[in-house]
Amino acid sequence: MQDNKKFKLVSSKKTRYLLPNILTLAGVCLGISSIKFSIDGNFSLAVIFILFAAILDALDGRVARLIKGTSEFGKELDSLTDFVSFGIAPAFILFFWELNNYGKLGWAITLIYSVCCVLRLARFNLTKINDSQIWKNNYFEGVPSPAGGLLILMPLIFELANFDFNYNFKNLTPYLTVIVAVLLVSKVPTLSLKKISISPKSTVFILLGIGTIFISLLFYTFKTLIIFGIVYLLSIPISFIMFKNHSKKENSETTDDDHEDVL
Predict the structure, then answer these.
(1) Phi and psi of 189, rounded to 5°?
(2) Which DSSP letter does residue 84 get?
(3) 167 — alpha (psi -120 to 50), left (phi > 0) or beta?
(4) What is the DSSP letter of 162?
């Protein structure tokens, strides 16, 4: 008598691959839903959905590495999700909110940002770091797509935050979108913090900081996002300086090693 074969989506040894991919798929659902809400004119909910998609994007890779569930399929799925959630959705939100007032130019800016985002993701997938330069894992080449998607939404987020500076930040929308698009495909190093080490003594303070950020996002969502956007923009020149200093240090050490070999 033959044993009944049960249908399995994945083998029992590969169930750990499901959770990261589920988080990734949830992110693409959030991105597509944000477009729907922007069409309906509900821009606050559209921005919140992009924020949730960015949080899931930050979690899926870390969860995959934590449970040893990384895979080539997950990597490709993550890139496709990033393009939808941070390359298409934010650009469409801006188009329905403001860029449509610029006619063909507004649509051209929308396309420019989306094209730059897909080029950035394609380059990211092909980037490989040598074992001798493992420190470069702490840096992205150019602004990552989740950060870019939130940065171009800053004028909209500023309006939703109800700040009053007697200036219409809508006017910055086309310029900021083009600038961020250029930063996406640039080779400017930005912090990734993938391989950052945390000492056990600082764990409590980090958890306290995460809790504070969560509470701030819960009660002062758009104001907190504005602060994050400003802090991130300020971090770009700092990360550039840090990258250059680290690179110079490595080059000097390599030169010294070569001199020692010659002697």
Answers:
(1) -70, 130
(2) I
(3) beta
(4) T
- Looking at 166-220, list the stretches that DSSP marks H as alpha helix, in order from N- to C-terminal side: 173-185, 203-219
Closest CA to 95 of 48, 147, 103, 167: 103
CA pair distance 3, 59, nearest whole angstrom: 40
- The pTM score is 0.84
In angstroms, the CA 176 to CA 199 distance is: 38
Q: How far apart are CA 149 and CA 159, in angstroms?
A: 17
> Can you tell me the distance from the alpha carbon of 148 to that of 184, in angstroms, rounded to the nearest whole number?
7
Greatest C-alpha distance within the chain: 81
* Residue 138 near residue 192, CB atoms below 8 Å: yes
Question: How many Cα atoms sit within 13 Å of 208 on the Cβ side?
Answer: 5
Residue 118 and residue 145: Cα distance in Å, rounded? 9
In tens, the pLDDT along 193-250 reads 666 666 677 778 788 888 898 898 889 999 999 999 999 999 999 988 888 888 887 7
Q: Classify residue 146 by its DSSP letter.
A: H
Q: Which two structure tokens, joined as six digits, stand for 195?
A: 């391989």
Dig out the tokens for 229 from the structure. Answer: 């956007």
CA distance 191 to 143: 9
Locus of tokens 């979108």:
177
Question: For residues 84 and 224, what is the distance between their CA atoms, to the nearest angstrom?
Answer: 24
Question: Which single residue is written with the structure tokens 């403001």?
Answer: 98
d(CA 173, CA 155): 6
Angle at 65 between CA 14 and CA 80, to 5 degrees: 80
Chain-centre distance of CA 118, in angstroms?
13
CA–CA distance, 55 with 30 (Å, rounded to integer): 11
Token duo for residue 248: 């110079």
Q: For residue range 78-87, what is the model confidence (pLDDT) as tens digits? A: 888 999 999 9
